[in-house]
Amino acid sequence: MRPQTLDEFVGQRHFLYEGSLLYNSIQNRSFESAIFFGPSGTGKTTLARIIVAGMGAEFHELNASTCGIKELKDVLEAAKVKFFGLQKEVVYLYVDEFHRWNKLQQDSLLQALEEGVVRFIGSTTENPYFAVNNAILSRVRAIYEFKPLESDDIVRIMENALADRDRGLGAKELRADRDALLMLAERSGGDARIALDTLGFIADNMTSARITLQHAGEAMQRQTAFYDRSEDKYNLLSALQKSIRGSDPDAAIHYLARLIQADADILMIGRRLMVCAAEDVGMAYPQAVSIATSCVQAAQMTGFPEARIMLAEAVILLAASPKSNSAIASIDGALADLRTKKIDDVPAHLKDAHYSGAEKLGRGRGYINPHAHGGYIDQQYLPDSLARDGTTYYRPTDNGREALFKKFLKELKE
């Protein structure tokens, strides 16, 4: 079921959509070199093959975990013959798991890239800014980050597999319940390969023509109660946040337990806890965001069952902390003004003055550096129209640590 054309490719809409620069470069056959990075099963190899097929060029595919310099040099020598010989043809080279090559192996590509002998596509699950030599990065213009596929994308991929009679499971004439496909998608962690492999396992070993939630749960070795009603997870997450906001640690822990018992994944719970830390605790205890994030990261590293301890710590901390929603109220207020009011330009004394000609334009003129006056100086920072109206967005509460910020700001004004 690996997509053969751009039309079949699913996901990565943040850089690949009809009319995007990458899409047009493939259609126009002007694509050159790139590095793809992101998790497994998100389409890196698939897109590389689609690109090269569209170019109509010779294609060599290597895997850095099994190939070394010898195989690479063989490809480069053959590419030189084509490029400098009568054919004048460019060869495309795709190296999967490129981060597994050491510096010396990666540097073997430099001359070929410099001369234009090969067009290179490297894929890696590691951040290329850490895993790939700078010399390679400077010669490869484009770096594309592949993100885990959304659940809806994976459901679509599985539905295509169930319908396709030539390459998929269409000949079996199976039907699949929506909640079963949704569970497979969400439990695949954004990896289409896992979802398709599991779907194939179910199709090969079931005795009926209908794939149910029970089949999905059995194949994934997961509980299925959570998915009996698709809205349950949102109700439980909502109850969790509202219990935290209401400073009821007992209720918050109860809903956390129900989420864990229902087999909600760590990231689903963790995202909501980090939002609670910023939205509901906020400036009353600013460190809550860092602590909640650390707890979620630790939970991901350890996995269940131990992850329940870190998640519980974060829930109790957030529920027992003083509360302030001043952060979300201030940014939402500023965004609302931008949508509804005519806002004046940035004051001239605040504009960037670090370039030739800025002084002639009056940029930065009259700006007073607070550090030269003990850390504070009374001057206008808001645009003129907002300053005239006496606009305020941040309204601190007297709760927790925010009371100290409120006192500090009040003393400055006085």
Q: Which key terms come to mind for this protein?
A:
5-stranded parallel sheet, Rossmann fold, alpha/beta, 7% strand, two-stranded parallel ribbon, Zinc Finger, Delta Prime, domain 3, 4 domains, 414 residues
Q: How would you portray this structure in words?
A:
It is a single chain. With 414 residues, the protein is of the alpha/beta class. It folds into four domains: 21-145, Rossmann fold; 151-227, Helicase, Ruva Protein, domain 3, CATH 1.10.8; 232-320, Zinc Finger, Delta Prime, domain 3 (Up-down Bundle), CATH 1.20.272; 330-413, post-AAA+ oligomerization domain-like (Orthogonal Bundle), CATH 1.10.3710.10. It is 50% helix and 7% strand. The protein has 19 helices and seven strands. Strands 2-3-4-1-5 form a five-stranded parallel sheet. β2, α3 (69-84) and β3 (91-96) form a beta-alpha-beta unit. The radius of gyration is 28 Å and the shape is globular. The model has no long low-confidence stretch (mean pLDDT 90).
Count of DSSP E strands?
7
Radius of gyration: 28 Å
Helical fraction: 40-55%
Measured by DSSP, the beta-strand proportion falls in: 5-15%
CATH class of the largest domain: Alpha Beta
Protein structure class: alpha/beta
Q: Report the span from N to C terminus.
A: 69 Å
| CATH superfamily caption of the largest domain | P-loop containing nucleotide triphosphate hydrolases
Number of discrete domains:
4
Outline type: globular
Detail the poorly predicted runs: none
Q: Name the helix and strand elements from N-terminus to C-terminus, one letter apiece.
A: HEHEHEHHEHHEHEHHEHHHHHHHHH
- Determine the number of helices (DSSP H or I, runs of at least 4 residues): 19
Using the coordinates shown, work out and report the CATH topology of the largest domain.
Rossmann fold
